Amino acid sequence: MILTDDDRRMLDGAEGPAVAAAMDLLTRYAEALDAERLCSVRNVAGTATQPSPLKARLVAEGGWDRAFSVINLDSDETHEIPPMAVPTCQLQQGFGADAAAVAPYPAQFVELQADAETFYGRRGVSILATCTPYQVGNLPVRGEHCAWMESSAVVYANSVLGARTNCEGTASTGAASLTGRVPCWGNHHDEHRRGTHLVRVDTPVGGFLDWGLLGYFTGDVVQEARPVVTGDLALPDLTDLKHFGAAAASSGGVEMYHVPGVTPEAPTVEAAFGGGGAVPADAVVYGAAERAATYARLNDQGTSAGVDFVLLGCPHASLDQIRDVARLLDGRRLHDGTSLWIMAPRALAAVAERSGYTATIEAAGAKVLTDSCPAMSRLAPPGTRVFATDSAKQAHYLPAILGIEAWFGTTEDCVRAAVTGRWSGELR
Amino acid sequence: MTATVGTVLSGRTVVPGVVTGEALVSPETISGWGGIDPATGTIVEARHALQGVCFTGKILVFPGAKGSSGWSAFFQSTRLLGTAPLGMVFTVTTTKAALGAVVTRVPALADLDADPVQVLRTGDRIRLDATAGTVELLARAGEGT
């Protein structure tokens, strides 16, 4: 593998032992991938603050320097952690103090996380505390090489923003934050960004539910390949594309997709496949039957009509989603024994509060919660057996993670379930 | 594919090192976050073919990694908690599996000349020489050493 003079200096310790450990990890990782070199990056999104029993043990042994050295740099030694070399943000983490009244989350984890935020904030980590950094100001430019983790953020960065990142991990993002380097492999190269499958949509797709269904179908079909989606599509907004990508990264491992005429690397179908007439002759067809089958699959984890819990905002809700929920809840009350949480970035929750949406939501008995989600914190309201969601991703993951039944539908179906305590959604 | 004792597959070194042990072959891709319990070294994903099976001390043979980018951190945790597999042999290279093998720090091999998931069986005794880029079948499951 080729190391530049600057790479070599860092590896040899010119920037201190923590940076040398970071370069050592990146070198081992690049060799594991058979990458030829490293890319320079100036935008890192990773996780360092979220609590776990292992992290609590490491912090007790040697503070956050030890936790970051061992977990985020894969080092055996404890190094003093310097300021981040390049802009770095914290992704979603555990529940914070604002959830203390509604979620039975361990108080010592809330304290550990607050302590972590202080440590990393002083070293230049922006505590965005969201799986959607692109919704709250972290927007790489087109073509920019990045080191991001979180599957839904990675697919958004590549596909919608035209930035370039692989699905990185806790250690590679930690090492990238101290070096400004990551292996130049996979999605960093043009030839790995071109479409592999043509998906032809023969039934109208428009709106949040339908983009989620199409994403869940597409991910299942292409797995980790790169779909090019064309056909009967209404112009999607940020929220639709966020849902499409997150769903495709749940049923499959999609890290890059193209919607010709919408996403930046696909002005045309031909361009999405790299030009030169490489468009596949056969298309995967998504019609009314496929739409119905996908809806049925997302609802095969629910048998009980009674709904204890409604979860909205996965990935974290946009301001539009919060406003929609406030409008749907205006003047209504949640059913006794049914909870409704909207998960949002804290920055957007502040705007929602200022705009009066939160007051309307809370008047109905629902909550806007920040920083985390039930999947990350492994927590739903006590006693939850059946939940409903408008997120294909949460419908996919939560039954396995929490052992609860799931219903999937529109935001309106979910709010109705919260108000009546009954699931009455159906595909329209 | 039929494989006899002495069969050698060749591949690309992901993490160098040599180990000899029992293969645990997963017919399906594996999730890290949400799919394994690092405290016990056990696959916990609902409906997974190996749900409830412990990989600690086994050479894990699997098609590849799926799911969350927490994959590598969960396998790193198995090393820190003493529940790691002995080695890894996988079919498809992704950033998750490659970084996961690196931070688990076990010998690992990928991009083999035949699909290891098809050739090897759970219980086979194998020698993984990830430095040389080979995996050798020493004894078939249930046929002694």
From TrEMBL, chain A:
Molecular function per GO: lyase activity
InterPro entries: Aconitase_4Fe-4S_dom (IPR036008), PMDh-L-like_dom (IPR007506)
Keyword set, alphabetical order: Iron, Lyase
Coiled-coil ranges from the UniProt annotation: none
Phosphomevalonate dehydratase large subunit-like domain mapped to chain residues: 1-416
Source organism, top-level taxon: Bacteria
Keyword DNA-binding on entry: no
Record has Nuclease as a keyword: no
Pfam families for this protein: AcnX (PF04412)
Official protein name in the record: Aconitase subunit 1
TrEMBL record, chain B:
Alphabetic keyword roster: Lyase
Molecular-function GO terms, alphabetical: lyase activity
One Pfam entry name: AcnX_swivel_put
Residues covered by the Phosphomevalonate dehydratase small subunit-like domain: 30-108
Top-level taxonomic group: Bacteria
Protein name per its UniProtKB record: Aconitase subunit 2
